[in-house]
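Researcher: I need the complex structure. Ligand is 3,4-dihydroxyphenylalanine. Inputs:
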Amino acid sequence: MDLAGLTEDLHALRDEAIAAARAAASTGDLEQLEVDLLGKKGRLTVVLRGIGSLPAEDRPRVGAIANEVQTAMRSALADAASSLRSRELADRLAAEAVDVTTPGRSIRRGTYHPIVETADRITRIFEQFGFVVYEGPEVEDDLTNFRMLNIPQDHPARDLWDTLYVDVENHLLRTHTSPGQIRVMQSTRPPIRALLPGRCFRYEAVDASHASEFFQVEGLMVDEGTTLADLKGLLDQFAQAMYGRGQRTRFRPGYYPFTEPSVAFDVECLVCGGSGCPACSRTGWMTILGAGMVHPVVLQYGGIDPERYQGFAFGMGVERIANLRHAVTDLRLYMENDLRFLEQFR
Ligand code: DAH
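Model: Output:
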């Protein structure tokens, strides 16, 4: 091997390397190419072995050429690497691009059940008068659901509440929210202003106007000097907040064992405005709740001295109020979980 031959080999290797670097398809290929060309056992090393057979005076010359060739190869590799890197980045950006103009997935928005929404509305109104929300248990005992509310065992008044018993130990599904009155009185000192919304249960033959599961909101106020006039004033305010200023109301005598006297509270018919229609049985009035002055016996069961304190209570069916607000005519709709019904209350 002579100087000319070795120089030619070096230049050929350089030209080949530059072409290969330009042709590399990926940065991975380039790294492999660098090892093949410039690595310890790479092709440049192999070519340079030929130096050994050159005369000593030619060797520095070859060294200089080899350096140039190596520099040229390195810079070809570096150029190729940088253009490949930007091409790979551009490819990745294109492949992973997010199309911000694609419409988003719509969020499935829920809605309050009309009963929950109506109970909330009722609660909001009484909260403005200082009433505080309490909750009683849905599984009650006979004592609290009946006896402490002045409804003795075997008393005919029990016929008003068709009861679902849970066991023979006198547990039952509460037939009304009134037992909550006892629980509030036993756990709080007067003055009391309590509101008790909740689910109630009765043994009923279910039809458009009878459900075995329904909601009530109970109210209880106990203080010194509480009168029936306070009850009337409060309920008038409630009716106006619920149905609008000027809503006419009336008390009628009623009967409940736990209040004395007891009343039914009517609003002027919300459908016909009082002239008489099928919705009000042509009376011009609709009964929306029962109420009265808490019976002294009930106060005593609640641990409250009836000589010092008086109270009033009221209880209303939430379905009845929701029916009137939304013109619903069949109670069963509330419990069927039919979205075609429920979605109307958005
Ligand atoms: N608990 C009664 C019922 O279920 C409703 C009721 C009437 C509640 C009069 C009261 C009341 O607090 O004073 O029919």
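Model: Summary of the prediction. Residues 176, 178, 218, 256, 259, 290-292, 313-315 surround 3,4-dihydroxyphenylalanine (CB under 6 Å).
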